[in-house]
Every structure is written in structure tokens, then in C-alpha cells.
Design goal:
The complex is a heterodimer of chains A (about 170) and B (about 200). Chain A has about 170 residues and is mainly alpha-helical. Helix content of chain A is about 70%, strand content about 0%. About 10% of the residues of chain A have low confidence. Chain B is mostly helical and about 200 residues long. Classes of the chains: A mainly alpha (about 170), B mainly alpha (about 200).
Chain lengths: ~170, ~200
């Protein structure tokens, strides 16, 4: 096993500061166990560290990061052979000004997580990226599908999510 | 995408991004790498210790009893070792990492890895069968005593049970992984075909 180049460490730290929570949320789509999820997150960052010298700027850094994260998620899921099982997403929520707001956010996040857990893996990836604010073109680049296909899948998934969220309201 | 959909995704995105899971620090990544390297070094150390032990055994046998039978089993042992090493090298060639950072490439790479690992099981049984055949032939040629035959049979029986247990455990693991990847490959192919039809 080769060490990643040391001069990448500052770049990695900057990426982790900027995209760390988004990558951790992506990992939560693949692993429900908190300890395993922590390992997966570390694997992702290790993969990013190694991949940084090969990054040629053909896509945005964020797209590249998510691609690595989801590919690591695929490998992790294969090793555990259980990525399609419902993933218990983490409960951590940003601190809110009031306990009521915090409780409300947690409840919303939990309902969304439950709905996401019912989606097939490819749709879960696409929706997860959409929820991170990626454009359809970036999602298409990340998951290796066409932009049209991503749009169609998002429309279907949105309908399904909406139904599920209304049913649990 | 229309405005209503954009609004829906915007609201869902805000809910999703309200989650703020803990992010590892670079020092944790370095520790993770160190743990992985330690595990690899331990495996290498074990391999080297086994190789040295084997060489010591061969040197001792050849120097204390340099007869034709000793040279016979030493030569056979070396041949089996070379075959095992050659298989190990050939079976891992090009299997370290997917060629590109694409989901389909990862899935194909994973499936290839599964095939190679299942091939390892077949190879292990084939090599074991060849070794048993050699031991039997060698035993008859040397004229082993009944006690020695019993000892050899007990050792080989125990080893067979161990190998069978490992085979069941290992195959189950690899097949579960292969099935997961096949499902994913089918889902990706269906998604691509869907894309062609759109």
C-alpha cells in the first residue's frame, strides 16, 4: 500500500472542510451501522486522497468527490452485500435556535430518511445527489447515466417520495 | 424541470442538508491508513516466516538424510510451491483497481474480482488433490509403516475438513457479493437502456 503524496494533505483538509458533511451523508446512503459508516467515510477520503493527483479538472471537484464516494459505497456494499438493505441514516442535525425547531427538523429528516430507504440503489444515489444540490448534468456525470435519464428518474422518484411523505404526515 | 418540482427538491434538499454528520479529521484518515498498512505488514511477515520455516526444514532434511527419497519430496514440495505462487500472481494480474472512476467500471471490476476468488477455491482443491495423490504415491514407494499412514491420514483428514469449512464460508461470502453486484449491474444496464428509450 502506497502512501498518498504528502503535499495533498492540505488540499484534502480543505476538501474535507468544504464537502465533509455532504460526503458523510452520501456514505449514510450505503451503510446504516455507525461504526461501519465511519470506516466507509474514512475509506472514501482515503480514496479521494489517492485519486487527487489523477484529477484533471474534467468535471468539478464536487462531482469528482461524489463519484468517488458513490463508487466506494458500491464496493463497500458489495463487501457487506447488504447495501440495498434499509440504511439507518444518522440522526445528527445542525443545532437550531430553539428545541422546537430542532425537534421539527429531526422529525422531517427522519421522515425523509424513511422515504429514501424505500428507493432502489440507483434512484437512491440520484436522489441523494439531487438533495445535495447537484445539477442534473453533474448527477449524470457522477452516476454514469444520461442527463435525460436522470431527469426522468428524478421525476418518478419525486412522485414516490411525495406520496410517501404525505402518507406519513 | 418545472418550478413546482424545483420547489419540492429545494425543500427536500434543505431537510436533507440539515443533517450534519461528523466528519473525520485528516489525522484519522492517516491512522486508518496506518492500520491498513499494519495489517498488510503482518500478513507479509507471516508469509516470510512460513517461507523461512520451510527453507529451514528443507535444508535440515537434505543435510541429515540426502537420499533419493528426500530429494523426491523436496522437489515435489518446490514444484507445488512454484505452481501456487504462479497461480497467485496470474490470478491477481490487473485486479487491483478499476480502470476508471465510473460506477459501471466499479461493478465490472467487482464481478471480475468475484470470479477470480471463486477460481481460487477451485485451484485450492485441485492443488490439494494433487498433493494427496503425490503423498499416497510417495508413501507406497517409500513403504510407510501403518503408524505413519495413520498419522498422514489423520493430518489429511483434518486438513480436508478445514478446507471444506473454509470453502463453504468463502464461497457463500463471494456469491453474496457477486449476486449483489449482478443486481446492481442489471439495474445500471436497465437504467442505461431506459436512457436510450427516453
Amino acid at each position: 500500500m502506497t502512501d498518498p503524496p504528502p503535499d495533498n494533505e492540505l488540499e484534502l483538509a480543505a476538501l474535507m472542510a468544504e464537502h465533509g458533511t455532504a460526503v458523510a451523508r452520501a456514505a449514510a446512503l450505503y451503510e446504516r451501522d455507525p461504526t461501519e459508516r465511519k470506516d466507509l467515510i474514512q475509506e472514501i477520503w482515503l480514496a479521494v486522497w489517492r485519486a487527487l493527483p489523477a484529477f484533471r479538472g474534467e468535471s468539478s471537484v464536487r462531482t469528482y468527490l461524489f463519484r468517488i464516494a458513490h463508487n466506494c459505497g458500491i464496493s463497500h456494499g458489495a463487501r457487506r452485500s447488504r447495501a440495498d438493505r434499509p440504511a439507518e441514516l444518522p440522526l445528527e442535525v445542525d443545532p437550531s435556535p430553539t428545541p422546537e425547531q430542532s425537534a421539527g427538523r429531526r422529525e422531517d429528516a427522519e421522515r425523509l430518511a424513511s422515504a429514501l430507504r424505500t428507493l432502489p440503489l440507483v434512484d437512491r444515489q440520484i436522489v441523494g445527489l439531487k438533495l445535495e444540490g447537484l445539477a442534473n448534468r453533474e448527477i449524470a456525470e457522477t452516476v454514469g447515466l444520461s442527463e435525460n435519464n436522470v431527469a426522468v428518474r428524478l421525476t418518478r422518484a419525486r412522485g414516490r417520495l411525495k406520496q410517501l411523505l404525505e402518507a406519513t404526515r | 424541470m418545472n418550478g413546482e418540482q424545483d420547489g419540492d427538491w429545494g425543500e427536500l434538499g434543505r431537510q436533507w442538508r440539515a443533517r450534519a454528520p461528523q466528519v473525520p479529521r485528516p489525522v484519522e484518515i492517516r491512522a486508518h491508513l496506518r492500520r491498513k498498512r499494519t495489517r498488510l505488514v503482518a500478513v507479509w511477515a507471516l508469509d516470510i516466516a512460513l517461507a523461512l520455516g520451510l527453507v529451514a526444514l528443507i535444508v535440515r532434511e537434505v543435510t541429515t538424510d540426502p537420499g533419493p527419497y528426500t530429494w523426491g519430496w523436496v522437489s515435489a514440495l518446490l514444484v507445488f510451491l512454484v505452481i501456487a505462487l504462479a497461480f497467485s500472481v496470474v490470478n491477481r494480474r490487473g485486479a487491483w483497481a478499476p480502470p476508471t472512476e465510473e460506477p459501471a467500471a466499479y461493478v465490472r471490476h467487482g464481478l471480475r474480482h468475484c470470479r477470480l476468488r471463486l477460481r481460487t477455491v477451485l485451484f485450492a482443491w485441485g492443488l490439494f488433490a494433487a498433493e494427496v495423490a503425490f503423498i499416497a504415491a510417495f508413501g507406497f514407494a517409500v513403504g510407510l509403516s501403518a503408524g505413519a499412514w495413520l498419522l498422514a491420514a489423520a493430518f489429511l483428514g483434518t486438513f480436508t475438513v478445514g478446507l471444506a469449512g473454509w470453502t463453504v464460508w468463502f464461497r457463500r461470502r463471494v456469491i453474496a457479493e457477486r449476486d449483489y453486484l449482478r443486481d446492481l449491474e442489471a439495474a445500471l444496464t436497465a437504467a442505461s437502456n431506459d436512457s436510450d428509450a427516453v
